[in-house]
Amino acid sequence: MDKRLEAFGRLLTIMDELREQCPWDKKQTNESLRHLTIEETYELSDAILKNDNEEIKKELGDLFLHLVFYAKIGDEKKAFDVSDVLNGVCEKLISRHPHIYGDVAAKDEEEVKKNWEQLKLKEGGNKGVLSGVPTSMPSLVKAMRMQDKAAQVGFDWPSKDDVWEKVDEELQEFKEAEGIEKEEEFGDLLFSLVNYARWLKINPDDALEKTNRKFKYRFEAIESYAKSQGKQLEDMTLAEMDEVWEEAKKK
How many CB atoms lie under 10 A from the CB of residue 195? Predict the structure, then answer.
């Protein structure tokens, strides 16, 4: 037997045993697993950003467990089982890759994405272009996905220079706004920056997370320095903090 199928069958068997015998596993529902699945997904994201293959492998295993768990619950409800799930995604992949499994030509990645979105619209009946973007998706990621989906049906700027002009326009409007309008204009500015990042093929969420990590590393260097000097952070001057910050940037 293919070792991949054997390993997957082993996981299914263990899931059956846990659901039948383990007090904790017996009690779980889709709702109780949901927040744990989100946590596992973020842990996988961290591992990917660190380029830690061992951690990626571990977190993928955790996610596989969750997916099998949901399929098991679906089977118990007589709603669907794991074979329905897997066959469903196989059929979707085949139908959305007509350049592989049909007679449609796709010369590059962008054409593949455009075909994908058009096929999704046909499958969705009266659903809108943006209907597939989850409401609970983090706002930065959601902005990128909505812009990308809209672009696939032709709603996009002619060039990145036009997008940058929009960024300049939104920045000026933010500077001039007052009161409650300030928040709205800040949102517009962020949205236009996300759009520009998309044109540059930069994932804004990844870019911001890398900056978060840099900030954390450099700020923790200030904390370590303060501790080594027997000081509290509040006792350091801004100039002292900035000096340590600059040293941390060099490392």
Answer: 25
d(CA 92, CA 129): 18
Domain total for the chain? 2
> Model confidence over 14-61: pLDDT tens digits?
999 999 999 999 999 999 999 999 999 999 999 998 899 999 999 999
Hey, CA dihedral for 242, 243, 244, 248, is it positive or negative?
positive
- 10 Å CB burial of residue 6 (0-12, 13-18, 19+) is exposed
The rounded distance, in Å, linking the Cα atoms of 173 and 167 is 10
Asked if residue 191 is part of any domain, the answer here is no
Measure the CA–CA gap between 53 and 231, rounded to whole angstroms.
Answer: 39
Last residue of a domain, one of 56, 89, 122: 89
Q: What is the CATH number of the domain that holds 70?
A: 1.10.287.1080
Whether the Cβ atoms of residue 149 and residue 132 lie closer than 8 Å to each other: yes
DSSP string, 26-72: HH--HHHHHHHHHHHHHHHHHHHHTT-HHHHHHHHHHHHHHHHHHHH
Domain housing 49:
3-89
Q: Is residue 176 part of a domain?
A: no
- The pLDDT-based confidence of 124 (bands split at 50, 70, 90) is low
Residues 6 or more apart whose CB falls under 8 angstroms from that of 79 comprise none
